[in-house]
Amino acid sequence: MKNSINPVYKLVFVLMAMLFVQSCDDKFNDIEGQLNADDLDYSATEDMVQALVGAYNVLATRGWEEPLLLSVRGDDVNAGGLGDQQQFADTDNFVYDQGYWMYNSLWNIHYGDIVSLNTEISLIEKFQDFASEEGKATGDQYIAEIKVMRAWLHFNLARVWGDVFIIQTNQPDAEIADGPASKNDVMQFISDQMDEVIPLLPNMRPNERTDIPGGITRYTAYALKALAHLEMEDYQGVADASAAIINSNKFSLYPDYYSLFKKPGELSDESLLELQFSDYGSSTGDTFYHLYDPFGPIGWTPARENAAGGWGFYEPSMKFIKFMLDRGETERLETSVLWTDRGIAELQTDPNYATLPSFVSNTTRDGDVFNDYARALFASGKHYLPSVQLTDGRNQYAGGKNFIVIRYAEILLMYAEALTRGASGSGMTADQAVNLIRARANMPAISGVSSDDVMDEKFAELGMEWGIRFYDMIRLDNFSELSYDGRTFSADKQFLPYPQAQVDALPTLSGSTD
């Protein structure tokens, strides 16, 4: 059993009638008997917030394979996991198996969660029938938050498969019968939805919210709108949505890049969307964790005894490491890559990297030692929590660590790219946006920023985060960057094939996406 995302809102009854997903009692705990939605007293409008908390639980309960599959095809990440999950490694090499379980799982979990979110919306609407005008307005805000969550899931699906279903109900037979929408139509749907919800959402940073700390605000919606317009290559739309965030003067870069991805950086002023996890500071009892084991090393000597290792399924690429070394990166490279002696030795076989900076070591600044293991040469530092930051008595790899989804640095770089591609901006130049990020990374300022400069900065700043690099290269038709270390990428490989199980079950899907 799992707690809800925010410990202040432990649920006392179930609010979801779910389709395509596991039963409700796998999502929640502290349940005194499971209630059907029809049994709820909708006149008790003070309970309406629990539908929203249930939605946040749905959003945060991600399968371990989801971020891996969304990310692995970029030139910043290799599959690792040698000797296991061969089809995952094949996917990294652009060899796709339509029957691979991960493809079907990503599809099922995302669509199942979309349906669950639609159910939460319908429950809020029922509460609104009994609410005061103030209560109705509160319900409108809750629904707006859930529509942002739903849009993010549609966004991921469209980037992975192209033409996908837009689902806005919890009984989607008719929507499925209508067939999938084009990727562009999905992105326009997201943009239109964000226009609808922005006025209804709190005008603050997520970490300023006191009702649900870290919850969605209007700036999360602006960020998702900017991302949708980026996929549509509507750079003025990107600039406008990004500028709304920048000109709010509410966001800033967390000053310590290394700590941003660890406990001190959680719910910082940089965060626009962050999945929250916790063991509530207790050595025993319930936890609500994301499973970070796939990102972790099989072999390590943690500074805090008994901290468990991982599975070795997610490896920073040698190409990324060399790119960072060539740029003279220090803080961002140390943060992004966890080194093994075997990986260092392999890097040094290239005479250009025979001498490495002192921070290149198999021991992190927090005292964790990453030993050699067969499945990978390196591990991801952005998905690492120092063992000394684990709660006493808790040993799971990165247990309780939050998962940043969208942060201000990405907004600044989208804005800068849009300006270099002809958009007009307000309040900041492309040089200023890029140099804010470079300053945090202890990199010298540059001037006359070009589109190529921005893409290099995105590679350095956002490597190994949610597949950002891969989808950028797809958008720009920069296939040569993805053809590295023996891989050959071509235009027909940009989308995964629809899962075979879905093609068999859904007549309106074809066997592949063009």
Automatic annotation (TrEMBL):
It comes from the Bacteria. Its main location: membrane. GO terms for cellular component: cell outer membrane. InterPro entries: SusD-like_N, SusD_RagB_dom, TPR-like_helical_dom_sf. Residues 372-481 form the RagB/SusD domain. Keywords: Cell outer membrane, Membrane, Signal. Residues 50-205 form the SusD-like N-terminal domain. Transmembrane segments: none annotated. It is found in: Cell outer membrane. Belongs to the SusD family. This is RagB/SusD family nutrient uptake outer membrane protein. The lineage of its organism: Bacteria, Pseudomonadati, Bacteroidota, Flavobacteriia, Flavobacteriales.
